[in-house]
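PROTOCOL LOG
Step 1. Enter all chains and additional molecules of the complex.
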Amino acid sequence: MSRDREGAPASWEVFLRARRGLAHQHAGSVRAADPDAALAMARDLYARRGDPLSLWVVRSDAVHTASPDERDPYFAGAHHKPYRYPEHFAPLTEKGPDGDHAE
Amino acid sequence: MPAERVAAPGAHDELLAHFDALIAEGATIETRDWMPDGYRRMLIRQIAQHAHSEIIGMQPEGAWLTRAPSLHRKSVLIAKVQDEAGHGLYLYSAAETLGVDRADLLEALHQGQQRASATFNHPALTWADTGAIAWLTDGAAVINQAPLCRTSYGPYARAMRRVCQEEAFHVRQGYDLMRALCEGTPDQKEMAQDAVNRWWLPAVALMFGPPDTEAGGADARTAALGAAVSRRAMAWGIKRHTNDELRQRFVDSCVPQAERLGLTLPDPAIRWNEERGHYDFTPVDWDTYREALGDDTHWARQRIAHRRAAHDDGAWVREAAAAYAARADAGASPAGAAAGERTGTGGRDGTRSGVAAPQRTEEHT
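Step 2. Run joint prediction.
Step 3. Record the structure below.
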């Protein structure tokens, strides 16, 4: 399907913070030639409604990724280190873990 | 872009088992997960067809932007058509996570290798058509697309959640437009009825696709073929319901709405079936219908020609943007002499958390 194409604009991943208190969340991607155009495109595309607080755009080819299935040691969830979880220890009260700091 | 892992012989079964297990437990498949080729191809085909339909679907309504009867209706229609462009872009973005390039998908549309829904190969003859399109075809889209919010491919499901939130506005404004006409002069009401007469069948037939159950009636061979495709799509969790099931759901929802508007749906066979708990309607004669709507019709050619012209007319904008970006890049290099040409909006590595102030230019309040 290849053809003589004018250079396709770069791909940018878009991250959006919908409201205060939330982290930026991945929304999708846009194509644009430069960062300002990417931001403008991201605003028109992912912020037409609501009152989003901020947008990030990151060039897709600059995102370094790893997936759990591919690299086990990265994402082992520390299941072999149970002492990282509170359930590993006795609760502070007889009500169980939820009662630790009950009034 | 997803770098596909190369599987050693024998490892394939293990990968497939893992994939099947994820589907079985209702988990989503994500971008870099291994997936069968057929699954990837079916998704690319469906998402591309969907994206193409969104952007081609801008045309019949877009033709009325300059002729809207009031500033309010014009603002609403601009917002609606802008949403359709947005839906296309959400979906091209989702398709690209499967390793295709949106420029290639658009090229395939222009070359006739991929298609948009034939629903839009109809002209919008009057203002009432914009209402009928939104009420009926967007209404059909909502019913079709709501289950896709839970489709098994993660990026597609997330795009569909955005789409569905916006479709609700589309359908309501269309119904509101039709109601205004129905409560207007006899001529206005007649215009509304005329538009419904022309858009009902395209919505019932084309928005849901070919019959895919025996209950779909029509042509047994088409139904058998459709059923095989639907079974595959449902086994993979891409689709959740048959075309015919969703079609029935659409008819059931529309009949009472049409009654409230005082409009007649152009199918004499529509009547409540107590036994089934559904409305009966005339089965779509799919093969005849599809014949009449081939790619070779005047409006099918018109839609693609318009799309190509818009793409070609916009070439200078893309070229200018690329030239601007190239110059900015040159300015950013240590040797660059064009330091003064940067716009001074901050470094490229910054997160610019203040830039997102939304401009609600399209919203009517």
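Step 4. Note key features.
The two ends of chain A are 67 Å apart (CA to CA).
Chain A touches chain B through 41 residues (CB under 8 Å).
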